[in-house]
Amino acid sequence: MAVTIRDVAEKAGVGLGTVSRTLNGAAHVRAATRARIEAAMRELGFQPNPHASNLKRATATTIGFFFSSSHHRPLSDPFFSTLMSGLADEATAQGYDLLVASAPADGGELEKLERFVAGGRVSGVILTDTRINDTRVEFLRKAGTPFVAFGRVKPASAAPCIDVDGRLGVETAVKHLFARGHTAIGLIGLPEDLTCAADRVEGYRLGYAHARRKVDEHAIVMGCLTESDGSRATEALLSLPKPPTAIIACSDVLALGALRAIHQRGLEVGRDLALVGFDDIPLAAHTSPPLTTLHQPIYAIATDLVRMLIKRINGEPVARKVIKPELIERESTARPAGSLRGSP
Amino acid sequence: MAVTIRDVAEKAGVGLGTVSRTLNGAAHVRAATRARIEAAMRELGFQPNPHASNLKRATATTIGFFFSSSHHRPLSDPFFSTLMSGLADEATAQGYDLLVASAPADGGELEKLERFVAGGRVSGVILTDTRINDTRVEFLRKAGTPFVAFGRVKPASAAPCIDVDGRLGVETAVKHLFARGHTAIGLIGLPEDLTCAADRVEGYRLGYAHARRKVDEHAIVMGCLTESDGSRATEALLSLPKPPTAIIACSDVLALGALRAIHQRGLEVGRDLALVGFDDIPLAAHTSPPLTTLHQPIYAIATDLVRMLIKRINGEPVARKVIKPELIERESTARPAGSLRGSP
DNA sequence: CGTAGAATTGGAAACGTTTCCAAATCGTTC
DNA sequence: GAACGATTTGGAAACGTTTCCAATTCTACG
Predict the structure, then answer these.
(1) Which of the two ends of chain B, N or C, has the fewest CB atoms closer than 10 A to its terminal CB?
(2) In the complex, which nucleotide's C1' lies nearest to the CA atom of residue B21?
(3) What is the pTM of this model?
(4) Residue A153, Cα to own-chain centre: how many angstroms?
(5) Cα B43 to chain centroid, rounded
(6) How far apart are CA A91 and CA A96, in angstroms?
(7) Continuous segment of H or E residues that includes residue B279
(8) Is residue A342 pLDDT above 50, yes or no?
(9) For A30, phi and psi rounded to 5 degrees?
(10) How many CA atoms lie within 13 A of B246 on its CB side?
(11) Longest dimension (CA), chain A
(12) Where is average pLDDT lowest: A22-31, A130-139, A314-323, B257-266?
């Protein structure tokens, strides 16, 4: 049987309470006593039993990360694993455990979430890819569980969140392309139920409005989040009677698909067509040609989410954050439209 | 305060023990009684407190997944997130929680692992990317914690594992390339402390031996696991006095780097040079040209690891598994060597 | 209907902490 | 050195389960 607080107390010749106080911040313990207790702990190899303390405290030092397994985002999206790593690193650094659960968006999501929250299994939850009318948000708000989200949260009062300003991002991209002489820009959008989807389309329209140009509604294709979706959407765009000379894909994985579709048409990105992605996954710098894209600092966002959640758990006020995506210019948009092959 | 087992017992007019038994498999509870108890549970919205049961049972229904954050594999490797998803899905499906922790391979890894294991925080651990003389294996073996690993485990008695037969895989690739008329094949290897690294090099040598050819030691370049490493290694291979006409990269991410480096030299994969990857990440089917690669069923491996671990936790015997990677032929090796531009 | 044996049931004790209150000790000041 | 407040300390009770044993209730059979 493992060594308990009682063994430590006995060995150090003190009471149970004193050992417990030493464990938790050492308030009201004389330095000499504490030293003795700590020595005893070391000597006995004492490890506090988390279950006992969780039970008594009716909470856990555990953060829950909940993601939809089969929603839109493919499992292999580098976005996801970078986020995951940031969460794990920061949670560990802050002395929290990270509990991970997945559920298909369509079925049993709330049940999973309930189990997650029930009995204080976690002290707070992190959501990602928030949706319009997100039932998870509603559920957590009702349950009174502290949570934060990556992606806008609808009743702003429900929880703080980190949101990347996709509107600004796409608008910047559109302006960038217009500045390089493009006139017809295609947009590959995200699944419409994601909060960020509408934003990005809006940014697209803003960019057009700013240039006093009229949006060709056929040049907006809504996709999902996989590479194949990107290819398909690009096919559609290139088959338009008046195909665009530039394409903005709302995620890098979509852009990778676009890259391939363009290539398969015998065209070359950067020479025949411009392409802009969104995310700046590490791979984006390494495609051929390297991809101009809107950078989201995903790892930093992940660590920040953890810090925000912990503050929230501790009852401190936390403000929502909006991050401006930065346009990373690479070769996929290097050539001005006028010099593109096949341009008028 | 939450509703407890005691409230349920009272409401259903039964004793504590009966409710508890109903919760855990309903052994020795009459159907009528159980129905009454379940009704009471539903009515009161009872959720068992996991901390209490963990404390009493001195264990948790929790699986720990431990990964090295900054070892070699980049955070964004799709390999990793696919694995992660498989673990999460299967653990959830089996009624287990998944606890995730990361630590840099060089510092504090064992301390993290200890905290992980201490006090029964997890009932078993899953490791990945096992290393030669892996201290984690040693630690877990000594601690008596059930664990399984993705990657060979050295004292085979320590734990069951799933290993992909990299030797066979690379040998197959070499044979495939020889069969297509190649004579000089470069190999981009993995970090040498990984158990799988040596295997793959060995497979390479076997393939050469089988063809009664002599290995050019300069054609073996050890890399890490990032895209840039792949580029760098490819640069080195292409700068050899007698550059290879085909390259095998020991991971798809490395192959992506190779793809770029080759492209930057003005060469084209599939036309001027053949390329084979390892992993078959989803992207591999979508590069240009699509990548011939050795398929590892990562998601299936992940779910299987979970099942194996649970068996192990329950004391059932579990055998190690060796998976044969399957060569997926795509266009990156489509053309026989004789037709390659610049071939003799 | 009685009885043995099996199946079901009730409830006390225990898991290892934290938390509270009362008791003991300390340090100051008169 | 007495008195007093502040600080430190000890330990019982409680957190919500599980698990055991003993007690009770069934079932089947003569």
Answers:
(1) N
(2) D18
(3) 0.90
(4) 13
(5) 43
(6) 5
(7) strand B274-279
(8) no
(9) -65, 145
(10) 31
(11) 90
(12) A22-31
Question: What is the signed CA dihedral for B178, B183, B184, B187, rounded to 10 degrees?
Answer: 10
Mean pLDDT in residue range A119-129: 92
Protein B319 CA to nucleic acid C2 C1', in Å? 56
Is any atom of strand D within 7 angstroms of residue A61's beta carbon? no
Instruction: Spell out which residues of B between 39 and 78 contact strand D, using CB within 7 Å.
Output: 46-49, 52-53, 55-57
Digit-coded pLDDT (tens) for A132-166:
999 999 999 998 899 999 999 988 999 999 999 99
Cβ neighbours, 10 Å, residue B181: 16
CA of B182 to C1' of D5 (A): 91
Q: Is B142 on the interface with A (CB under 8 A)?
A: no
B103 interaction partners in chain A (CB closer than 8 Å): 92
CB atoms B100 and A78 under 8 Å: no
Q: Which amino acid is at A11?
A: K
CB-CB neighbours of A280 under 10 Å: 23
Helix and strand totals (H; E) in chain B: 12, 12
CA/C1' separation B24–D9 (Å):
42
Q: What are phi and psi of B51, to 5 degrees?
A: -65, -40
